[in-house]
Amino acid sequence: MEAGITNYTCIEDSIRAVYGTSVSITKKSYVGGGDINDSRCLLLSNGERVFMKSNSIANKGFFIAEETGINAILSTETINVPKLLFRGVDETLGISYLVMEYITGTDRIDNFWIDFGHNLAAMHLADSGNFVTDGIFGFHSDNYIGASKQINSSRDSWIDFFRECRLEPQIKMAEYYLRGFFNKKIITLLDKLSVLLVEPEKPSLLHGDLWSGNYIVGNDGRAWLIDPAVYVGHFEADLAMTELFGRFPSDFYRAYSEKNPIDGGYKDRRDLYNLYHLLNHLNLFGETYLSAVKSIVDYYV
Which band of pLDDT confidence, cut at 50, 70 and 90, is reported for residue 1? Predict the structure, then answer.
């Protein structure tokens, strides 16, 4: 698929434009799994099914960013993503929407996790120079991590990027939770990042939010990536996220390392990368995540 999809002003108009004037939506079925957007399977009068995500008109930026992220991953020609069909804003319904192919799912191929590890490593090894302007790390546009704005301003240093564009914005949003003496520990941690983290040998395009809920089994039985929060950074940040809410099987990491070796010091940095995601969850969902944030900060400080 070429970068860029058509933007329409009505869901029904977009269906007719893509599938023909006689085709309409005959049924909408709820699809679970997300907590930000409303997700539906649309059954069309020609028998085809498509997948639609919708949100308020004010949040149409979610879908512009998702299109950009999907196309960035697609351009690496390393790992599958769903085919985007169209997006738009329906003033009558009061929604913005993004429509893509419907993934029916199938049995996993026998070497699913090995294939997944190899393909993710290939994505991380792909050239990332076209994704950043005036720097090495970041992305050419801001996007979202969940419902939070994700700042992707360019930096020449990965450590500076992680400090200034990842941790600091989340820390500022979490000021209520991190007040007092604990806030001083946060400042100490930010000052120590140059000692705790390392610069990568090469920058990598990252999925950016790679937990178990953001891959699916595609129609070919392989892992397909969904819901990206892409940017260029250290590949370790993606790997760390795969371990935050339930680790992927060991075959995945062994296969990944066959293509892109994982440094022995990665385990010492893993929780620090995941501090970003835990801070984001703290800001989005409340103090349930505060103890995990404090535990990581205490460990490194």
Answer: very low
